[in-house]
Amino acid sequence: MNVKKRTGSITKIALMTAFLVVCAYIKIPLPVGSVAITGQTFGVNLLALLLAPAEAGIAIFIYLLLGVCGLPVFSGGTGGFGILAGPSGGFLVGFFVAAVVISLLKGKKMSIPRNLLVTVVVGIFIIDLFGVAWMMISLHLPLKQAILAGAVPFLPLDVLKCVVASVVAKPVYTVIESFQSEKAATMTPAETTTPAEMKRD
């Protein structure tokens, strides 16, 4: 990977990780269940649609690592290993898996219908699968009760967040690609070559 591509990749990972942190601060508590509605699902979906699989995985991993280290990056500005080990921890792990899988399945060409398909059908399923399973273990709940508490109340808004992310992803992706193309056009050959790729006379 040349300098241009590596720099662009690192920049996108950093920006999307920061964006996910901002989304985590959007929190709407519900009168039922132990998990509030947050903007995280929207952030995860948009991140997965804009980044390559490896980039998406790295971004979510960094996000989780920051949270585990105690930084207030989780839902509502919380942090610490206790959050990951708590009732909502499964959803956080599900974010990592869902982001990678969504990025793998989205295809190389940005398509809103395909974005919707992978985020709603695959993404929500993966996140809820991990989240509900962990709630069953941590809270000792039967399957039906865990689904009713951890998945059903949030499903309508999760779908809405998938729709918004799928629609927003296309113009944002176009802007990113345009910016990278313009930047590449202004870079010299030396700036696009890593030291390892340079040859001595």
Structural commentary:
- There is one protein chain.
- This protein has 201 residues and is mainly alpha-helical.
- Helix content is 69%, strand content 2%.
- It has helices at residues 3-24, 40-50, 53-68, 81-85, 89-105, 112-139, 143-150, 155-186; strands at 27-28, 37-38.
- A two-stranded antiparallel ribbon has the order 1-2.
- The relative contact order is 0.14.
Please outline the helices and strands.
Elements: H1 3-24, E1 27-28, E2 37-38, H2 40-50, H3 53-68, H4 81-85, H5 89-105, H6 112-139, H7 143-150, H8 155-186
Antiparallel strand pairs: 1-2
As a percent range, the share of strand residues is under 5%
Portion of residues within helices: 55-70%
> How many H/I helices?
8
Runs in which pLDDT lies below 50 for 5 or more consecutive residues are 194-201
Mean pLDDT: 87
Measured between the Cα atoms of the first and last residue, the distance is 22 Å
Alpha carbon gyration radius: 19 Å
- Spatial order of strands in the largest sheet: 1-2
How many strand units? 2
**Major sheet: size, sense and barrel closure?**
2 strands, antiparallel
What general form does the structure show? globular
Compressed to H and E, one letter per element, the order equals: HEEHHHHHHH
- Structural class computed from helices and strand pairing: mainly alpha
